[in-house]
Amino acid sequence: MRMLKHWWLAVAFALLAMGCASTGGQADKLHEAQYAWSAAIRWGDFEGAWNLVDSAYRQAHPMTPVEFERYKHVGISRYHDLGTQTLPDGDVVREIDLGVINKHTMTERGMRYTERWHYDAEAKAWWQMNGLPDLWSGE
Q1: Contact between residue 117 and residue 30 where contact means Cβ atoms under 8 Å apart
Q2: What global pTM score does this model have?
Q3: What pLDDT is recorded for position 137?
Q4: Signal sequence: where (predicted)?
């Protein structure tokens, strides 16, 4: 019985060691970046989310204080990943279902949003390539 107990302990330790060895990979970094992005969007930290956008996109499409102020007038009630696809160039596309609440009228509406993620090998980081979601499209 004691031998069996030590065997299970050895197996558990080996599995734990394998799990630790796999951290830090490209897939893990993508998951971390997407989690940080979705948390920032869900909690209304659009300036924080903006920091996860690719720097070339930020330079080409700078955000003004007025544009950031506009995001303070909405809340996010849901953020659901509807599906993820890896493209041939290695980028990852993720379809998102958002619930958007107008804080002044307290009305909610749903919308879809597409994220595109690109891995920067030099920075060893994933960047969001589409900018912040346009929460006012179609209005």
Answers
A1: yes
A2: 0.79
A3: 77
A4: 1-23
